[in-house]
UniProtKB/TrEMBL annotation:
Organism: Rotaria sordida
Protein name, as recorded: Uncharacterized protein
Superkingdom in the source lineage: Eukaryota
Signal peptide: 1-20
Lineage: Eukaryota, Metazoa, Spiralia, Gnathifera, Rotifera
Keyword entries, A-Z: Membrane, Signal, Transmembrane, Transmembrane helix
TM annotation in the entry: 362-384
Amino acid sequence: MHRIYLSLSIILFALSIIQCDITNLDEFFTLLKQSPLKKYSVGFLSQANFEVIKRYLLNNVERVLFENKTEMLKAIENETIIAGVSTGILAEDIAPNYHVFSSLLVSPQAMLLAPEYDPTLAPYVSKNESSTDLFDALNAAIADVQRDGTHETSLTLNNRTNLIRVETCLQETPLPVPNRDNTTGYLRHILFNKSKLIIGGLGPKDFGVHDGNYNDKSPTGFYPALLDAIVKKLGELKGPDEIIYGKELSSERKFFRTPESLFRALLNGDIHATDVYIFINVPYNGTGETCSNNSQCRTRETCTNGTCTHPERPRSLHFRTTCTTASRDTKFITKKDSSFLRGNSSSNNQTNGTRQTPKTRWIGFILLFVVLFGTIFLGLLILVRRKKYYRIEHTVQGGFGKFARLQEESELPIEGMDSFEDHIVQSPRDNINSTS
Ligand SMILES: *[C@@H]1O[C@H](CO)[C@@H](O)[C@H](O)[C@H]1NC(C)=O
Ligand SMILES: *[C@@H]1O[C@H](CO)[C@@H](O)[C@H](O)[C@H]1NC(C)=O
Ligand SMILES: *[C@@H]1O[C@H](CO)[C@@H](O)[C@H](O)[C@H]1NC(C)=O
Ligand SMILES: *[C@@H]1O[C@H](CO)[C@@H](O)[C@H](O)[C@H]1NC(C)=O
Ligand SMILES: *[C@@H]1O[C@H](CO)[C@@H](O)[C@H](O)[C@H]1NC(C)=O
Ligand SMILES: *[C@@H]1O[C@H](CO)[C@@H](O)[C@H](O)[C@H]1NC(C)=O
Ligand SMILES: *[C@@H]1O[C@H](CO)[C@@H](O)[C@H](O)[C@H]1NC(C)=O
Ligand SMILES: *[C@@H]1O[C@H](CO)[C@@H](O)[C@H](O)[C@H]1NC(C)=O
Ligand SMILES: *[C@@H]1O[C@H](CO)[C@@H](O)[C@H](O)[C@H]1NC(C)=O
Ligand SMILES: *[C@@H]1O[C@H](CO)[C@@H](O)[C@H](O)[C@H]1NC(C)=O
Ligand SMILES: *[C@@H]1O[C@H](CO)[C@@H](O)[C@H](O)[C@H]1NC(C)=O
Ligand SMILES: *[C@@H]1O[C@H](CO)[C@@H](O)[C@H](O)[C@H]1NC(C)=O
């Protein structure tokens, strides 16, 4: 019996030599753990993507930031990085050259609003206007979009149906909102003075054809469609008095290069809310103004190395966070036919590395066959040596039959366990028979 396990593990080892690609999370982490002293570069498209999975990566991972997806895929191709991390790439779009697998970490996305000014809870915000009614109205609009199927239609139209859904405002009845005449703050401003809902975005960025390319004058894709649907629902809302808010509502986007400047605009009241794709599980760490002393920074922020910083705090707590608008599971992208798992001598030589692929693979196959035939030979050998314990009718059966018989006789406890498992396996089958 032990010999069988030994042979099996040899076969598995041989298989693992042939399997040179990283195709799933386990293989990725196994590789990183194998050589803790070796540095592995992993590519990211944004700091936020890195923040989300940082704590799960090992110390030997080096972060490489890329300007855009094309550049990152090139680096995966020439093996300067072992894997790329992305939230927006669809496997079917970049197949057949890459493996795409989930990190199993989900990042919820939502719109963020400034909190209401409060001397103890939120002294860091502009005192001018209240975001409370706008916050309630946006939540109601988001829940409506998700309930009536607009959200699902938009996902289908943009080939995003396999998106992970995390909906934090799931209920079958509309969320209550104040009467139009009773609204206050930003919402009143928007409804009564015909001003636009001002939305702050990052970039402009290209999130791809499915999610939206904001470099276009009129962006199309899932995120832009979602914001349009939310603004439309906002105009259709009505309080208990049944008076509709106003169908002519519209929105306007302002873009900010960094999250710091986006959040500064939000806290200053320059924008009403952020766009729908902001990750809420990423820390907020300050508005980033240049400063020379603390008095130049807003309350709760300090002047550190010339910029206003805040001790890390989840965005979802520092701001008003609406119902989730979307969510992402961060994905790893690795190369097919890569040479990372094939020793070091030829692997990291970018120009000639891929040429080694077929040769190494053949060596692997030959090894597998040698091991397979070795196992059969070993089995026969054991049998011949133990022949005296057997009756003649056993040896008449084929080699594998005898081998199996040998297990039965030498290892009774395991045999007992096998029959126990048989019992478990059989019971569902019996059930199927009885129902059909
Ligand atoms: C983005 O990718 C394109 C190729 O599609 C490349 O020409 C361009 O230089 C890249 N942009 C940046 C900022 O690296
Ligand atoms: C690999 O691709 C990246 C991105 O295009 C590039 O910056 C890097 O220089 C390339 N490395 C080699 C060795 O070709
Ligand atoms: C907010 O207050 C500041 C100064 O207190 C003022 O300059 C600004 O115009 C106000 N903004 C709005 C929207 O009222
Ligand atoms: C979505 O998928 C359909 C069919 O699979 C295809 O015709 C269409 O071009 C895709 N749309 C996008 C934006 O990729
Ligand atoms: C809404 O405004 C009306 C007057 O316009 C007032 O009678 C009513 O009490 C207000 N309702 C609330 C909930 O504030
Ligand atoms: C609407 O605009 C007028 C003048 O343009 C201003 O006096 C008024 O306060 C504004 N109303 C709101 C709710 O902002
Ligand atoms: C916030 O943290 C990021 C990542 O560590 C850093 O790049 C950025 O400069 C920080 N911002 C502030 C205002 O400290
Ligand atoms: C901070 O800097 C400003 C402008 O440089 C100066 O007026 C102020 O006195 C400084 N405050 C402190 C506490 O040093
Ligand atoms: C600030 O500066 C100090 C020393 O000048 C340095 O040790 C520290 O890492 C810097 N912090 C940041 C966030 O850059
Ligand atoms: C593996 O390759 C890298 C880059 O070519 C090199 O720096 C490192 O020393 C190599 N390690 C071994 C064990 O050969
Ligand atoms: C890659 O191989 C070429 C040719 O054998 C050699 O000249 C070059 O130094 C190698 N590069 C590395 C990084 O090992
Ligand atoms: C590596 O590849 C380049 C171009 O593909 C070729 O000119 C060179 O001779 C190759 N070097 C070796 C050692 O095979």
